[in-house]
């Protein structure tokens, strides 16, 4: 029922704008409005904080179905979870109450600030600093590649509080867009997910009350990594949705397109491509849903499974969208058809929340 509801909404209110959002590289406001109106913008927020209380599998299905229509728009529910999960996993009751209610209502979005210009795969090498000053912390530094920066009201920011301790000297904070000293860089000009703003976040002597620290001092990096264990599954869901969207479009196209006097769907070479695409998608789906169940239960092997789902589903999305372009021939290569957008959008799922090389490092360190 949830899938049907999200699919109908996505087809009616999100898909019609997907091409324009990409072409104009603009924020998908129509999608945000539709998701908020239907309480689908941050479904993971527990009921006790005013949210819909969706479990990890339901959250995955929402993201998958939105991504099937528009990958950029699927970053609204996905990054709302990514940004706010550190607070839900490690934050004080006061922080949860304060920040989850506006998120659940749709009055505010949440971003996640881990990466920096010189600290990507090696996120613990970050330079952003937080220095204690009485009952405040003062933050200085640059966060890079921040999804929904400028649009979000709230930012989970990881910063160094004790440089001698490397990853154990990193703490997490909630920073608000309106805090003095917060500003944003120009939107990045990207290959895909062009509707999702990606900007630098500048922290220039940002002074915040000490109770905005998420969890204990020195636990920020552990919280950041624990968050990714759960949210990599949402990237797998995004990849899955993009791939399904491309397969569905290609399936319709090959029945219509005629060459050699018959629909190209009649050729076994075309049928085998579609069969492989569907097979890979289904394998990715099962891995992703199993990982979502593990996320919900907090199983011990979640780290491996989350990395495996993200890595596998994103590689499938890249293969399937590339094959969809192939099935449309020259038409697939043009912006008159949606599959080239899907191919460009798929690429990011192999890169963010840890590249697929990093996922393999994570899996190798956590072999079942
Ligand atoms: C559109 C977009 C949105 C993003 N959104 C966010 C966000 O909201 N919040 C956030 O914090 N970050 C975000 N990111 C950052 C993203 O997570 C990083 O780009 C990613 O982790 C890779 O870091 P990097 O770009 O510095 O690449 P690098 O770490 O410099 O990697 C370059 C290459 O080297 C490889 N490599 C690096 N180390 C190793 C190794 N040990 N073994 C093998 N290969 C290795 C990588 O796999 C990659 O192929 C976003 C990025 C993009 C492009």
Shape: elongated
Structural class: alpha+beta
Please, how many helices? 11
Strand portion, in percent?
15-25%
List the helices and strands and how they pair.
Layout: H1 2-24, H2 29-37, H3 56-69, H4 71-90, H5 93-105, E1 110-113, E2 129-133, E3 136-147, E4 154-160, E5 170-176, E6 182-184, E7 198-209, E8 213-214, H6 220-256, E9 258-259, E10 262-263, H7 268-297, H8 302-327, H9 329-332, H10 339-348, H11 356-365
Parallel strand pairs: 1-4
Antiparallel strand pairs: 2-3, 3-7, 4-5, 5-8, 6-7, 9-10
The structure holds flavin-adenine dinucleotide (FAD).
Describe this structure in words.
- The protein has 368 residues and is an alpha+beta fold.
- The protein has 3 domains: 104 residues, Butyryl-Coa Dehydrogenase, subunit A, domain 1, CATH 1.10.540; 108 residues, Butyryl-CoA Dehydrogenase, subunit A, domain 2 (Beta Barrel), CATH 2.40.110; 144 residues, Butyryl-CoA Dehydrogenase, subunit A, domain 3 (Up-down Bundle), CATH 1.20.140.10.
- 53% of the residues lie in helices and 15% in strands.
- The two termini are 34 Å apart.
- Bound molecules: flavin-adenine dinucleotide.
- Flavin-adenine dinucleotide binds next to strand 1, strand 3 and helix 11.
- The site of flavin-adenine dinucleotide has 22 residues, from strand 1, strand 3 and helix 11.
């Amino acid at each position: 029922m949830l899938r049907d509801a999200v699919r109908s909404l996505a087809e009616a209110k999100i898909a019609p704008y997907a091409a324009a959002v990409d072409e104009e590289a603009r924020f998908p406001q129509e999608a945000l409005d539709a998701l908020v109106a239907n309480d689908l913008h941050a479904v993971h927020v527990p009921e006790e904080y005013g949210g819909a209380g969706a479990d990890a599998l339901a959250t995955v299905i929402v993201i998958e179905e939105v991504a099937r229509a528009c990958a950029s728009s699927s970053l609204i529910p996905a990054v709302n979870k990514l940004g706010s999960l550190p607070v839900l996993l490690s934050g004080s009751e006061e922080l949860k109450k304060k920040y989850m209610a506006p998120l659940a209502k749709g009055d505010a979005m949440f971003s996640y600030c881990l990466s920096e210009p010189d600290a990507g795969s090696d996120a613990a090498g970050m330079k952003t600093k937080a220095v204690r000053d009485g009952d405040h912390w003062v933050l200085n530094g640059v966060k890079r590649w921040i999804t929904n920066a400028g649009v979000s009201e709230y930012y989970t920011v990881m910063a160094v509080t004790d440089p001698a301790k490397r990853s154990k000297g990193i703490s997490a904070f909630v920073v608000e867009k309106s805090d003095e000293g917060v500003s944003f860089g120009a939107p990045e000009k990207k290959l895909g997910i062009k509707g999702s703003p990606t900007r630098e976040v500048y922290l220039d002597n940002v002074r915040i009350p000490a109770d905005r620290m998420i969890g204990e001092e020195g636990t920020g990096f552990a919280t950041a990594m624990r968050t990714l264990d759960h949210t990599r599954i949402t990237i797998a869901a995004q990849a899955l949705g993009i791939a399904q969207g491309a397969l569905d479009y290609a399936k319709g196209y090959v029945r219509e397109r005629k060459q050699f006097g018959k629909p190209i769907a009649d050729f076994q070479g075309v049928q085998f491509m579609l069969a492989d695409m569907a097979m890979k998608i289904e394998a990715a789906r099962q891995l992703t849903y199993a990982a979502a169940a593990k996320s919900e239960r907090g199983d011990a092997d979640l780290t491996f499974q989350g990395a495996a789902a993200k890595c596998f589903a994103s590689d499938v999305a890249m293969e399937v969208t590339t094959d969809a372009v192939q099935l449309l021939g020259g038409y697939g290569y043009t912006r008159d058809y949606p599959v080239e957008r899907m191919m460009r959008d798929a690429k990011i799922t192999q890169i963010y929340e840890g590249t697929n090389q990093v996922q393999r490092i994570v899996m190798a360190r956590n072999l079942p």
